[in-house]
Amino acid sequence: MANVSTLNATGAAIDAVRTEIAAGPRGKKPKKVLSRRNIMIYGILGLAALYYLLPLYVMVVTSLKGMPEVRLGNIFSPPMEITFEPWVKAWAEACTGLNCDGLSRGFWNSVRILVPSVIVSIAVASVSGYALANWRFKGSELFFSVLIIGAFIPYQVMIYPLVIILREIGIYGSLTGLVIVHTIFGMPILTLLFRNYFAGLPEELFKAARIDGAGFWQIYGRIMLPMSLPIFVVAIIIQVTGIWNDFLFGVVFTRPDTYPMTVQLNNIVNSVQGVKEYNVNMAATLLTGAVPLIVYFVSGRLFVRGIAAGAVKG
Amino acid sequence: MTDLSNSVSIRDLSLHFGAVTVLQNLDLDIKDGEFLVLLGSSGCGKSTLLNCIAGLLEPTDGQIFIKDKNVTWEEPKDRGIGMVFQSYALYPQMTVEKNLSFGLRVAGMPKDEIAKRIARASSILQIEPLLQRKPAALSGGQRQRVAIGRALVRDVDVFLFDEPLSNLDAKLRSELRVEIKRLHQSLKNTMIYVTHDQIEALTLADRIAIMKSGVIQQLDDPITIYNRPRNKFVAGFIGSPSMNFLTGELAEEGGHTVFRTHGTSFSLAGYEATETLTPGRKVVLGVRPEHIKVDGDLAGEEAHDAIVDIEEPMGADNLIWLKLAGHTISVRIGGARRYAVGAKVRLGFDMTMASLFDAETEERI
């Protein structure tokens, strides 16, 4: 209140002397649009964007050309005759080994791997992150440290033991086995993400919920979950892109008829028999990359917000 | 083992975090319907004590009784307490109504009973028009009212307040302070209120417990705390502007005990000592700024010369800083009386309201 009245008083004083104010700079300083600084910034940004978009352009253009046109070798020229034949072939007819039903089989395999892996890993990691942040138990810090160390161990070290373990359990080569592997390897980074996010929520909310009589699951489900949409989006993006793009686990832990899309793409692109069908290869690659690309486009803003929220507090 | 009229009793409570001792062998009895304020600077353990009473922190040792029931091992919800937090801690995704009813819904209470309780609480706190809003659409004062409402609907014996007004601006703070006092007068519940604001403590409390490093320094009604502080810490903590302290020693002059500092003697006539005042003892004399009489106020008692150093007019009052016997002391006089810097004044201490502390132990003597 005092501030407002002082401001008003100053305003009145300025009104009184307004006639005496000389001409000259006043108010906002005008900015030039075409300043050297702006030209530099936008020039460099434009060049960088061009550089990164060029390969994508080549791929899209090539995938829409027929083989005769591809053989001409003008990879930057737009297609003279647009054809979707390569896309159809890549999806439904391309051969890998003995199968000739295209990428579609790999796509559905990948979906069957992706959906349970994402759901299970996020469900487990969010609960353990919540427990680590809010229900400190004896040794919880040690448990957390061990988990974090797990994030730094290279995957390759663990592949052979994992193969043996899965073989002994009897699920080696099945999709279930691969889902379990993805869930385990998603755990450290996801738990860290969720723990930091939940630790950043006001502790008094948790205390208030406890006084209100809510238990472990009630606080998780009714207080924490509704507040953590951004971090769930981040986790979903990390898991969807990571699991979809995975090649190593896919090739190690599955059999040819359960290969995920990435492994199948590799087999299509690297097949040595016959002509190299560049247009089909480009279309197949674009099809495989479409899922993560769509995920990024749809959720870009939420993603940035969630990353920022998770990164604030350690 | 506990007195029947006690609402909350704390017995020999200790809390350690590793090597750090937060609370030490603390005993506290809070009567039924009493408004007790835990007052102290940050880190003194007052909020920790409140969290222990709420059951949000496990004590290392000791017992807590609420309504003569040992609740030391009980869950917070089973203790019959409601708590109001500094940051309101409203569930952001729920409307005010859902915030109020959350605890009741968790407990599985019938719908019509929930509605009845919400209606009662929201009419007491005058938040009926806000029931369908989300916390984000409320002002700070409204949020804190909802937070109090959340404790109210639970129909509990004991209310715990953890610095509930500290996030509000000064004007709202004084308004809500009055509302909390009115609430206590109409509900007559036991209330335990943590604050670092001495004005809140003095205005609200039936009794104040002043804490320092996990130990209660003094537990008394506000007037006693203000006028007869038990030690120098309490004396300096309570009161704004704070008490003047003069270091010196006791001496004997003409058959009377006097306080002597830098060659000036002050008669202690009228001071109620709790111990015998032996001459030669090193002591600290504490006098509040409003217990010093200046010039015209003097009624024939012993007076001394002092020089005005600084003058701080504060509207209703005028605070003048005087140089006297090697000390700078502040005196509160009426706002209309002005003094020039360097002016000479005659002043006398009101020894019936003064405090004497041992210079070593800092305890009242």
Q: For the record, give the distance between the C-alpha atoms at the N and C termini of chain B, rounded to a whole number.
A: 33 Å
**Major β-sheet annotation of chain A:** none
Number of domains of chain A: 2
Largest sheet of chain B: 6 strands, mixed
- Mean pLDDT of chain B, rounded to whole units? 87
Describe the structure.
Chain A: Belongs to the binding-protein-dependent transport system permease family. The complex is a heterodimer of chains A (314) and B (365). Chain A has 314 residues and is mainly α. Chain A has two domains: 34-83, no CATH class; 108-259 and 281-312, MetI-like (MetI-like fold, Orthogonal Bundle), CATH 1.10.3720. In chain A, 74% of the residues lie in helices and 0% in strands. Chain A has helices at 2-17, 36-63, 67-71, 85-93, 104-134, 140-152, 155-169, 175-200, 203-211, 216-227, 229-245, 248-253, 261-269, 278-312. Chain A is flat. The two termini of chain A are 39 Å apart. In chain B, the strands form four sheets. In chain B, strands 6-7-8-3-9-10 form a six-stranded mixed sheet, with helices on both faces. A five-stranded antiparallel sheet of chain B has the order 13-12-11-14-20. The two termini of chain B are 33 Å apart. Chain B contains eight helices and 20 strands. Chain B has 365 residues and is α+β, with helices and mostly antiparallel strands. Chain B folds into two domains: 6-237, Rossmann fold (3-Layer(aba) Sandwich), CATH 3.40.50; 244-358, Beta Barrel (OB fold (Dihydrolipoamide Acetyltransferase, E2P)). In chain B, helix 2 (96-106) crosses helix 3 (111-125).
